[in-house]
Design a protein that fits this description.
569 residues; alpha/beta; eight-stranded antiparallel β-sheet; six-stranded mixed β-sheet; 23 strands
Length: 569
């Protein structure tokens, strides 16, 4: 049995980290526990690595991190002369350890390392890759996953997360590396002493904040806004407060229980600004502060969620709603101020609100759709930059609370988004409106677009089999109708084709191949199914358009019930 052999090998050789040694000892004789840790190797994809922290080939630990880094180092040395990398990390358990292990291996392989001395957000890492003209970068984070996870985001020379071709090449290099005996490594301190590892100074963060500040649309307008902010024990605390202070916003109250770094996330087991539980501490603090808005950034500060004071309560706004409002605000205000580029472009992912099309059409903006993953938005910025037309890019966002204005980074950025959200809230406050009321006005003007996501969690070996079964089953027997509506067309992004179900006519999808299925229904509804690229789950996205929320919600519930029946759930 392969799993048992690997377990025995690990008990013998995985002795450097006492936590792993103790875990291995504790599962002796437990076949299920051993299988769950050794049934496969960690997969290196365009998002790098992500998994549960612990012992085993399918877990995040110093050995799987070392092997991935050795493969990445081999790839860099094969493709570039004298490459360098930038490294950052968040507050998660063992993030600093994994960052130093990564730096030591790169340095031992002749790759110059620029590493931050303390935790910094993902967008700051993207900025640093470009700042140092590095050929790659690593951000040690599991984003908004629960505390038991950690991860390793890998970046290319453009500051975007790695392309599929590059990830495939790195994977081939990783597969050549023996987990215990194939690593070239020096002590971290030796790398610093030799100059191969350089600790990044404060000037880089200052340069980043300078670029963020340039994205302000109405500078200084938010000075009288009252904000309660939570970094959810992650990286956002210093940079978000710094940029708000630069913009004159002094009245910021930070949630004390969630201010300092803590990878255990004791008050927010799911440190995800998409869910209300992440705001519970902020909501308890709100009555004593009476803020206009609550802000929450996830642990690596690339996503931000908000709750808006409306009447006697705070209402959480969805990622789609905030993105639509930001797009509308940026367009309307840049036009009003005469700061409007010729042939402006905005970018959204295929699972992001179709209401964006209405907003873009209103202001004469070309709206480009890309696959899920912010690297594809960053790629569009790079294409514009190659033509010296980067000023055409005005905004990009995805439904999962990721936004970017400006071209200084190539990943979503909760620092710039926090600044613009506060600015936008203050602008409408001056008109006597809350952001909730602004959103209702947009719905009244364009129709009520409701976007919902269903998550089917698929952890462990059994979960992986279920995930594959769901996608294979839909490909073999896709729906012809859902909730009484005919499916007009079905798209398979892995095959790069969309089929008209009435005529059988096929159309080529001009996007990279991806494991995504999409169904367009009568009445403008849509269902999209895709495995998450960063979490062990299948995500099902529902889009409906109704005369009001109740109408759109009823449509969504009917669609979800039919999908659940189709999947046997």
């Amino acid at each position: 049995m392969r799993e048992q052999e690997l377990y025995t090998l690990w008990k013998e050789k995985a002795v450097e980290d006492p936590d792993l040694a103790a875990e291995l000892q504790s599962i002796e004789g437990d076949e299920t526990a051993i299988t769950d840790r050794f049934y496969a190797d960690m997969e290196f994809g365009t998002a790098g690595l992500r998994g549960i922290i612990g012992a085993g080939t399918i877990r995040m630990n110093i050995y799987t991190v070392r092997r991935a880094t050795q493969g990445y180092a081999n790839y860099l040395n094969n493709n570039f002369d004298s490459p360098s990398v930038a490294i950052s990390f968040d507050s998660r358990i063992k993030s600093d350890l994994f960052a130093k292990e990564t730096a030591a291996i790169f340095a031992a392989n002749g790759i110059k390392v620029h590493i931050f001395p303390e935790l910094e957000p993902t967008p700051v890492l993207s900025f640093a890759v470009r700042y140092f003209k590095a050929k790659g970068g690593v951000m040690v984070t599991a984003s908004h996953n629960p505390a038991k996870y950690n991860g390793y985001k890998a970046y290319g020379p453009d500051g975007c997360q790695m392309t599929q071709d590059a990830a495939d090449e790195v994977t081939r290099e990783i597969e050549k590396v023996d987990l215990f005996d194939g690593i070239t490594k020096i002590p971290y301190e030796d790398g610093v002493q030799s100059g191969m590892i350089s600790v990044i100074g404060p000037e880089v963060l200052e340069a980043y904040l300078d670029e963020v500040q340039k994205q302000a649309v109405n500078p200084g307008i938010a000075k009288d806004l009252k904000v309660v902010y939570t970094p959810l024990n992650g990286t956002g605390n210093k940079p978000v407060r710094a940029i708000l202070k630069r913009c004159g916003l002094e009245n910021v109250t930070v949630v004390p229980e969630q201010e300092l770094p803590d990878g255990n996330f004791p008050t927010a087991p799911f440190p995800n600004p998409e869910i209300r539980q992440s705001f519970e501490c902020a909501l308890k603090l709100a009555p004593t502060v009476n803020p206009d808005i609550l802000l929450a950034t996830d642990p690596d500060c690339d996503r931000v969620g908000i709750a808006v004071h409306q009447g006697d309560e705070f209402i959480l706004m969805t990622g789609n709603e905030v993105g639509v409002m930001l797009l509308n605000y940026i367009c309307s205000q840049r036009i009003a101020k005469g700061n409007w580029p010729k042939n402006p472009i905005a970018v959204k992912t295929i699972v992001t609100s179709a209401l964006c099309f209405e907003i873009a059409a209103k202001y004469g903006v070309e709206l480009i759709e890309v696959l899920t993953g912010f690297k594809f938005i960053g790629e569009q910025i790079g294409l514009l930059e190659a033509k010296n037309e980067q000023e055409r890019y005005i905004f990009g966002f995805e439904e999962s609370y990721g936004y970017l204005a400006g071209t200084y980074v190539r990943d979503k950025d909760a620092v710039v988004a926090s600044m613009l959200i506060c600015e936008m809230a203050a602008f409408y406050k001056n008109q006597g409106k809350t952001l909730y009321e602004v959103m209702q006005e947009l719905y009244a003007e364009h129709g009520y677009y409701l976007n919902s996501v269903q998550n089917i969690v698929c952890e462990g070996a059994a979960g992986m089999a279920e995930l594959q079964s769901i996608m294979e089953g839909l490909r073999a027997n896709g729906p012809k109708d859902l909730a009484g509506r005919k499916v007009i067309s079905a798209a398979d992004y892995e095959l790069s084709e969309e089929t008209n179900l009435a005529t059988g006519e096929k159309k080529t999808i001009e996007l990279p191949k991806s494991n995504v299925l999409s169904y367009n229904l009568e009445g403008g509804a849509q269902v999209i199914v895709r495995p998450s690229g960063t979490e062990p789950k299948v995500k099902i996205y529902y889009t409906t358009k109704g005369k009001d929320r109740a109408d759109a919600q009823a449509q969504t519930e009917a669609l979800q019930a039919d999908i659940n029946r189709l999947l046997g759930r």
